TrEMBL record:
InterPro entries: UDP_GlcNAc_Epimerase_2_dom, WecB-like. The lineage of its organism: Bacteria, Bacillati, Bacillota, Tissierellia, Tissierellales. Its EC number is 5.1.3.14. GO terms for molecular function: UDP-N-acetylglucosamine 2-epimerase activity. Keywords: Isomerase. The gene is wecB. Belongs to the UDP-N-acetylglucosamine 2-epimerase family. This is UDP-N-acetylglucosamine 2-epimerase (non-hydrolyzing). CDD domains: GTB_UDP-GlcNAc_2-Epimerase. Residues 22-363 form the UDP-N-acetylglucosamine 2-epimerase domain.
Length: 372
C-alpha cells in the first residue's frame, strides 16, 4: 500500500509528524511525504525537529500570496505528484487551504482521502476564516474521517456522513507534545531562561485574521491593564510575523519590563514554554488542545471555537475579545485559586498520545477491506 501524506503549514506538520513516523514503522506501507511549503520557515523547523525529509517539496510560498494562489498552486503541484506516484490513499490534516486543495486534487484522480482531525466545526462559515469552509469542503471529499473526539463524530453524523466512515482517534497533537516536552529543556532565547517561572508567567498568542483590528487592540489593552495591576504577572508574547499583528502589539504592549515581545518560536521551545508558564491566553486552535495536556488553563480569545470539548471539559474557557471580559477572566484565574485548580486538573478530552498508532491501524484495516 502506498500512502501520500500532504501538509504545508507548521500546525499541520506538527500533527502529521507522529503519523509519518508511525507509517514509516510499518513494513507493508510505502510512505511518501509531499509538502506544499505554504509556511516556509516555520514548516522547515518542524521537519527538522522530527527528522522528516519530504519526498516532494512544492515550495509554493510567496509573500502576499492570496488564498486563490495557494489553492491553485497546491492542486497543480499535487497533480504531477499523484500522476507519478499513483498512491492508494492521500492523507491531509486539519483545515488549511492546503488541506482542501489536497483533497480536491486526490478526488480528481479518484484517489481515496483520509482526513486527520475531521469533524471540527465552529458553526460560522466565516469564523475562523477560511478554515471553517476548508474543513467542511474537505469532508465532502473524504473517505475516512479521523475524528479526535466524540463531539467531532457527532458533528459529522449531523451532516449525514456514514457512521462506518468515522473513527474516533484522539488528536495527534498530544502525541507530538509528548515527544517534544522535556523537564530540563534550555531555551536558545536568553530572555526565556532568565524569567522566574515561579511567578504568574502567562503565555499570550494572537494572530487570527478575524481578530486583527479592534478585537486585537481590545485584547492587548486588557493584557497590559492586568500586568500593570498585578506586580507578580509577566507576559510572554511570541509575536506573529504578520505586520498588522506586529503593529498592534507594538502600540499596546511595547515598553513594559514585564511584557516580553519576542520573535515567533519554533515547536520545541514553544511547547516547552507552555510547560513552564502558569496559564495561556490564545486565539489559536491547536493550543486549546496542547496546553491542557500540560495542565495549563486556557482562556480562548475568540467569539466561537470549533473545539467545544475543551470548553465543556473546563480545560479552556471561551471569553471573546471584549476588553472587560478579558480583564475579568484573566484576573479571576490569577486571584481565584479554586477556579484555577479546577481548570488545571480537568481531564483533557483530546486523547492519550496514541492517536497516530490508532489512525495507521485503521488505515491498514480499512484499505484491506476495500469496500470504501
Amino acid at each position: 500500500m502506498k500512502v501520500i501524506v500532504v501538509f504545508g503549514t507548521r500546525p499541520e506538520g506538527i500533527k502529521m509528524a507522529p503519523i509519518v513516523l508511525e507509517l514509516k514503522r510499518r513494513p507493508d506501507i510505502e510512505t511518501v511525504v509531499a509538502v506544499t511549503g505554504q509556511h516556509r520557515e516555520m514548516l522547515d523547523q518542524v521537519l527538522d525537529i522530527f527528522h522528516i525529509v519530504p519526498d516532494y517539496d512544492m515550495n509554493i510560498f510567496k509573500s502576499g500570496q492570496t488564498l486563490t494562489e495557494i489553492t491553485v498552486n497546491t492542486m497543480v503541484g499535487l497533480e504531477t505528484i499523484l500522476d507519478k506516484e499513483k498512491p492508494d490513499l492521500l492523507l491531509v490534516q486539519g483545515d488549511t487551504t492546503s488541506v482542501f486543495a489536497g483533497g480536491m486534487a486526490a478526488f480528481y484522480k479518484q484517489i481515496k482521502v483520509g482526513h486527520v482531525e475531521a469533524g471540527l466545526r465552529s458553526g460560522n462559515l466565516y469564523s475562523p476564516y477560511p478554515e471553517e469552509a476548508n474543513r467542511r469542503l474537505t469532508g465532502v471529499l473524504t473517505n475516512f474521517h479521523f475524528a479526535p473526539t466524540e463531539g467531532n463524530r457527532q458533528n459529522l453524523l449531523r451532516e449525514n456522513y456514514p457512521d462506518e466512515a468515522i473513527f474516533i482517534t484522539g488528536n495527534t497533537v498530544i502525541d507530538a507534545l509528548h515527544l517534544a516536552v522535556k523537564d530540563d529543556y534550555v531555551f536558545d532565547n536568553p530572555v526565556l531562561n532568565t524569567i522566574d517561572y515561579s511567578k504568574d508567567v502567562v503565555l499570550l498568542t494572537s494572530h487570527r485574521r478575524e481578530n486583527i483590528g479592534v478585537p486585537m487592540a481590545n485584547i492587548f489593552r486588557a493584557v497590559r491593564h492586568v500586568v500593570e495591576a498585578r506586580e507578580n504577572v509577566e507576559v510572554i508574547f511570541p509575536v506573529h510575523l504578520n505586520p498588522k499583528v506586529r503593529a498592534i502589539a507594538q502600540k499596546y504592549l511595547s515598553d513594559h519590563p514585564r511584557i516580553h515581545l519576542i520573535e515567533p518560536l519554533d515547536y520545541l521551545p514553544f511547547s516547552n514554554l507552555m510547560n513552564k508558564v502558569r496559564l495561556v491566553l490564545t486565539d489559536s486552535g491547536g493550543v486549546q488542545e496542547e496546553a491542557p495536556a500540560l495542565g495549563k488553563p486556557v482562556l480562548v480569545l475568540r467569539e466561537e471555537t470549533e473545539r467545544m470539548e475543551g470548553i465543556e471539559a473546563n480545560t479552556a474557557r471561551l471569553i471573546g475579545t471584549d476588553y472587560d471580559a478579558v480583564v475579568a477572566n484573566f484576573l479571576e484565574l490569577l486571584d481565584n485559586a479554586d477556579a484555577y485548580q479546577a481548570m488545571a486538573h480537568a481531564v483533557n478530552p483530546y486523547g492519550d498520545g496514541h492517536a497516530a498508532e490508532k489512525i495507521v491501524d485503521i488505515i491498514i484495516e480499512q484499505m484491506a477491506d476495500g469496500s470504501r
